[in-house]
Specification:
Elements (H helix, E strand, L loop, with lengths): L1 H6 L6 E4 L3 H12 L1 H15 L4 H13 L2 H14 L21 H14 L2 E4 L13 E4 L7 H5 L5 H10 L3 E7 L2 H6 L5 E12 L6 E12 L3 H10 L8 E3 L3
Parallel strand pairs: 1-2, 3-4
Antiparallel strand pairs: 4-6, 5-6, 5-7
The structure holds S-adenosylmethionine (SAM).
Length: 246
Amino acid sequence: MLLRSRKERLFKTYTANDANPLLVNFWVMLRDYPEELSKELWSSYQVHGSESEHLFAKSLEDLTSGNDVTRAAAFLIIDKCAAKGTHPPKMIRSSTRRHGITPFMIERLPLFSELLENVTLTCLDYRQLDIPRTAFVFADPPYEDVGVRIYDQKVDFQEFSEWVQQMDCSWMISLNDSDYTNSLFRNYDRIVEPVSYPSIIDPKSGCYKRRDATEIIITNYQQKTKNSFLTSFGWSLREARISKAS
Ligand SMILES: C[S@@+](CC[C@H](N)C(=O)[O-])C[C@H]1O[C@@H](n2cnc3c(N)ncnc32)[C@H](O)[C@@H]1O
């Protein structure tokens, strides 16, 4: 979302925030030290391959004992090789092309780095953010019930919805589609969009099975501009439907 909007030059200035220090360190290293980060990933790839047990074990170690660049490389490797939602991270093999670290991925990193130039990156709880009235806020909290399992963070959705609804700037949020999340934002139209994501591990193949679900996207600005805003952010809304405010 951030990178797409930077590419389209939709705004003058950008700030990205997340409470996970390892995630923020990754983005900071990608922004400020892309060559060092690529070098680190190349050297891991050349010695250990794209998704070996050795690579995974080394990355787990680097995550706690390495310097900032090494930790950023380890974070990416673990993200690409671990089963989502395992604490501590557990390695999973996969036949998909998005799995493990690949030369294609490493070569493309500097392109993302350019898009992060002049983006302010912060590592705060969302409640600590100071948001100007002129801002546009996009928030993408963990799905209900998976916050602790996947991100080690639990979000209180009642509190989150109150925080969102008191902001006096334009905002867009995406949430899992449930009776509870819909009820928290029942005063707004909700765009319901089909998504598919890797969720459970198939015991036979040891690979992820994809799961079909729906997400809701809510904005506090006019429906008329909603689609064009979403489209300019790269959202494809072909199959989406609208749940009207009640
Ligand atoms: C669905 S992910 C969004 C990831 C992000 N859009 C990205 O592409 O990297 C949800 C994120 O919310 C973060 N998070 C959870 N609780 C938070 C909190 N209280 N304040 C700020 N971020 C939080 C998690 O660390 C996680 O990275």
